Amino acid sequence: MTGNHKDTSITRRRALAVTGGTVAAGGLAVAGYQSAFADTTTGTEATTAATTASATSTGGTCMTLMSSVTEGPYYLDGALVRKDITEGKSGVPLTLRLTVVDATDGCTPVPGAAVEIWHCDAWGYYSGYTTANPGGSAPAESEDGSTADDGTYLRGYQIANANGVVKFETIFPGWYTPRTCHIHLKVHTGGEKEDGTYEGGKVNHTGQLFFADDIAEEIFTLAPYARHSGTYTRLDDDMVYDGGGASSGLLTLKPVKKADPSKGYKGSLTLGVDPDAESTGAGSGGGGTPPTGTPPSGAPTGTPPSGAPTASASS
User: How far, in Å, CA of 186 to CA of 119, rounded?
Assistant: First the structure.
């Protein structure tokens, strides 16, 4: 696959400076990975991971605030608070662990922060907008055979624990023209869980998570992803990713089984936010509206099913 969808009409956001350089951001991401996956280790290994994470976050090498980017055209209010967001959607398993830290206070954890994510399915379709054309050639979303709710699949919240960590069980996202593979996210504080979702408070950060090209392209040769054919946009040609590595949302990925990518991946990242700031979701970069159809009020084509969450005014 090659990426030839670079949009030269959009000025990319400048890569953030990181205290101590890019290596510091990468080191923090690794420490976040060790801390987030500490529950899979015992004894000395767990102690070492926790000590490394603590030393990294308190030793002065803390990444600056992660820059906000557009929430894109597919945001819906009212996502559910839940760990598993797949609803039976097929794809390569992805365990996602994110650590929310206060970048204005030595990267201390932000317990109680609500992390919200949403992304497309293996063929490039988002819940709520299942008739939007993902570009290239893909089966209709309804052909996937799952019983997923067309208004809620692959969307959800998790509330950070005392270490600022949240965990999601999902699938590796597909792609749509002209975007690279990505996951959208927002970090909220000050609200509370109510009626199965998260209400109140404010959005501190709006961002996107990205995947290394070699891993994404290997995944896309597997079922069911391979049924979506076309030209995949690589990271260097994406209109949102600015090349800043971990500080720009590039995930650290670890295969569950090296010899068999279909068994899934574990992905992690540390999110440096300002809990006192508020993000509008406007950000920089484009959302990548599919190539066909006229989006109503800036949203993609397709109407959310009855009873589904509704698009926010900012989308």
Answer: 12
